[in-house]
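G.,

No rush on this.
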Amino acid sequence: MYNAGKAKKFLHSKVLEKIVDEKIEFKGKNVVPIGIINTDFDILSDWENSEYKGVVFDSIQKKYNQIIGNEPFYTLQSVYLSNL
């Protein structure tokens, strides 16, 4: 994720490990450090046969055009939990 975020949104794993090591008081006593990624992402709303379709692809101009009155994107949320 650090590389995918171009080092802007995420900490490098070594920096995160150092932070976790400094914060855990019970290190080695059945404590498992976990990592959490909680992020929103946008998806182009170009579903076929949907009343919520927000864009249509123009095959002649080779581009998407927004349908007036509909949102071109919709937002989803993703949460990932993992031990470090």
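When you get to it, here's the other one too:
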Amino acid sequence: MAFQPINTNTLLAGDVSPCSVDIVGNNANPALFMDINNEFVFFRMRLNCDPRANNDPTKLDNFAWGILIKDLAGIPLFSIRVNASGNVNKVQVFEAEFSDDSKDAFVGSPICQQNIQLGTNVFVSLAGSNFGGDPDFFLDFRVPLSCFPDNFFNDQHIFCGFTSTNGNNINKELPPPYTKPGNSNNPALCGGAPPSEEKVRLVKTVTPLTGRTCEVQTFTVTITATNISNQTLSYTITDVVNAQFVTLDDKIRNFTVTNQAPGASQQFMYMITGNFPIAGTFSFNMATAVDAADNVIGFVEGPDVVITPCRGLIFS
């Protein structure tokens, strides 16, 4: 996936609690991202802490997270919900409704839904930021394009993040036009501006690309950064390893590029030792290039590594 920022507004930590439903971000560390291919639309949300239940890698906390999609006039069209509250545990798409008599996003019945499967249609990873003093996390989720009208995402839309501690209404991060008594909505939760201009092309390789849950391995990461603009650039690359990778090594690496001429490339390499304790396909890491003005000028995620379970017992 090649996520692009869709919300670079400033969203400070601590405006709602618990921290796992607190959306955070700024221009350098966008709160919301989006990607699309010929089968799915993908969203990424930056949260103030781990949204998994007691840091359990197998399930989410008993809350709900989502994206409200509006037209350019601000009229709600669809809401996408990662609804882990109660016994729902589904990724859902609803046709959004709004009237003076119904100022609540959680109405109607889902037009599409799939069971939440961590590592398949929902992903959790370290975000490489710490707005609240502790590491922030990404919550990624995907929805089939078949849930929406044909070519729906070819048009421009406004995308708003929201969160809730129940599956009946939005009671935490609340975007307009919805309102709740005692809970003001926050326009900064909504974005949709064009992605930042790519000035640095980041290419990553990771070896090996396979492993087993019971094996500790050393992975070699190589990042090549090329200035594809027509000006000399200085910037910082931050590379963040997947949150589910268990290691004693540093999972966040920073590299500085100074006065890089147009067309020039620079390569960085590091090794990290550890393992994925659960089987699945994981995006190994994510790299972001940010200039001195905190603009995101380069971004790349992956490659994927495939981890298979260990079978049986080994006796020595």
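Residues 200 and 227 are 5 Å apart (CA to CA). The two ends are 42 Å apart (CA to CA).

Enjoy the weekend,
O.
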